[in-house]
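We now fix the convention by which a protein and its fold are recorded. The integers have meaning only within a learned vocabulary of local backbone shapes. The record below shows the convention in full.
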Amino acid sequence: MSSIPTFRRLPLGPLAAALCLAAALQPAAAQETKITLGMSGWTGFAPLTLADKAGIFKKNGLAVDLKMIPQKDRHLALASGAIQCAATTIETHVAWNTNGVPIVQIFQMDFADLKGKTVAVSAPGTAPYFGLAWMLHKNGMTMKDVKTVSLEPQPAAQAFVAGQNDAAMSYEPYLSTIRANPAAGKILATTIDYPMVMDTVGCDPKWLKANAAAAKALAQSYFDAVAMIEADKTKSFEIMGTAVKQSGEQFGKSASYLKWSDKDANQKFFANELVPFMKESAVILKEAGIIRSIPENYGVMYDASFIQ
């Protein structure tokens, strides 16, 4: 039978008692959870930049490293463990999950006849490519009806203004280049006309399971940033504009073409719109050759508990 050690209680002297009291009164040092999040300079992601620069992440106990990673490479960074979370469009989450890179969405952030025309657009699997496929689909066409040139959103806008290609898929803040040069052409459609570019932040499911509190703090930080924008647009636009080398006024113009979702809007979207949108996007992803089969389980692609 194993013996149980016994200890004799010794009286504490005045100094020892004082040290114990001081230790009890000393607040515990807050330990920040580290998160590396992959994103781009797209205006819709700007509240994450605001949460970083305005100290909101830190206030909520997070040390977030925002990494600018092209959308076509973001899933590789996630699969390798280089990032734990990523901001991207909903249909991209569907494509990544279906193609073997699991990610769980935890909160939401925000045609003319082109048949036979040459369109500058990002690579398959990116938001601009899906956006073009979506618009064509809504107008009775497919990607096979157009010729594509692979260009990222910024050079696509610049090339279009320079007279290259018949059309271009781009996004804010680069659409401002086209707006500022009306002689070069006009914007045929935006996400106001075709609201298919809806962004969410998702995280690796294993990381989520081990860091639920941090994930909830990440979502709350985003909501805090949206609240800050509403409370002080001038200051917020200046901070967010700096990250993309724009003045506050220029950024404000870019931001006027989208709307960021607060907590209430998130809860409604996750409850009513997310799954139908994912199902519709899956059909177009398969049609465009991005995925080979329609997903069987959309429930593994999101978790609404972090926005409650």
Summary: Residues 118-184 form a domain with the D-Maltodextrin-Binding Protein; domain 2 fold (CATH 3.40.190.10).
